[in-house]
Amino acid sequence: MSYGRQFTLFNHKGGPNGWYVAFIFEELGLTYENVFPEINMRAHKGPEDLVKYNPNGRIPALIDHGNNDFVIWESNAIIQYIVDKYDKERKISFAPGTEEYYTQLQWLYFQGSGQGPYFGQLVWFILYHPEKPQSVLDRYTNETKRVLGVLEGVLSKQEWLAGNKLTIADISFFTWNEIIVASFLENFDFENEFPVTAKWHKRILERPAIKKIWDERARLSAQK
Fold first, then answer.
1. Dihedrals φ, ψ of 102, to 5°?
2. What are residue 73's DSSP bridge partners?
3. What pLDDT score was predicted for residue 147?
4. Start and end of every GST N-terminal domain (predicted)?
5. Where are the domains of the chain?
């Protein structure tokens, strides 16, 4: 399955969550293969055989062939696993047990509980829900902007979310921010409404590893 690469990543060509796992691989110079199972976007469900890698039946899921084919799922658990095990130089992470490590961890939890669900629900109701209830659209639009406001408040006081460098905490927010800002907020000016967050977001995109993977996603998405 891996064609000699260390990892197999079950991903989605147009989705957000698998790609920031790919960012981490690229940043650390780790080899991997993307596998794109057929996903029913309305049901948010993959094929039956995906369940043997992720009991939730969704992507991303990861096989680490260098660790006895260890399988792990949920995007933030995956990237935490990768850096804990393979980022020995702490290029984009902090060492377990340090205060910065737990700050990094809290932002991963917030991304998973705050950004992902609210941004994802906004996309669902805009793209897939048969009705377009304005009250629901308003709720998720407002929650999306509230999350951006949380980032703005913190990044107004410090350059990165955890410690004094870019980490997986920052990278984890990139894909959903990029997707939402580009396509799902009407009459929205990112640079004007959240200027500090917009600059932080741009700095992440300008990293060669991030840009390379994001361009690959755009190319593959265009083939659908």
1. -75, -30
2. 61
3. 98
4. 5-90
5. 7-92, 99-208
What pLDDT is attached to residue 223? Answer: 81
Nearest to 156 by CA among 185, 195, 109: 195
- Give the 3-state DSSP-derived string for 93-150, with helices as H, strands as E and coil as C: CCCCCCHHHHHHHHHHHHHHHHHHHHHHHHHHHHHCCCCCCHHHHHHHHHHHHHHHHH
Does the domain made of 99-208 have the CATH classification 1.20.1050.10? yes
Query: What's the rounded Cα separation, in Å, for the pair 64 and 62?
Result: 6
- Report pLDDT for 46: 57
Amino acid (one-letter) located at 53:
Y
SS3 assignment, position 30: coil
Q: For the chain of 224 residues, list the mean pLDDT of each consecutive stretch of 10.
A: 84 93 98 87 61 91 97 98 98 97 98 96 91 94 97 98 97 97 91 97 98 95 78
Query: d(Cα 186, Cα 201) in Å, to the nearest integer?
Result: 19
Contact 71, 61 (CB under 8 A): yes
